[in-house]
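#structure-requests
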Amino acid sequence: MLWYFVRSFFRRTWTLDDYPVVINAQRDRAAAPDERGTWRPPYAARIEGMFLVGMGLTADAARADLRTRFEQFQNEKPLPRPGTWQPIEFAASDRIEAFGALRDDFVARVLQMEWAFISDESTLDDFPEPEELNRRIMLLYGVDADRLPDRRIVTLLDAIQRR
């Protein structure tokens, strides 16, 4: 990372090639859906120090996916200097926090957890067995999560509160 950092002072604009990219073969993952139905390709490419990851069936495909994600990131935010660590940015949670007791009840009774970090962007699919969660939501709150415009938990809590 030190080499990429020093080298960055001699370039005005940075491309993906100016960042340390690590490609991992995830041998324990087949190119098929896991038990949750989530498809995870066997190769992952990431930029060391940043939280950008590309996935693919081959190492080249993972790097190509990373390049696409890098270009999207570059269009949204200023690039951090190569060879530095970028801090983690958490999604906003203002809307979800406004539900207070309902959110806590949802976490305990539906997710069946003592606590969970839920942001305004969190979805039911972020948790294990989303179909079982749908069933619990219908039984406990009488709301069909599949009929909502999106799978975000904040949308679901809003529907529960309106009901």
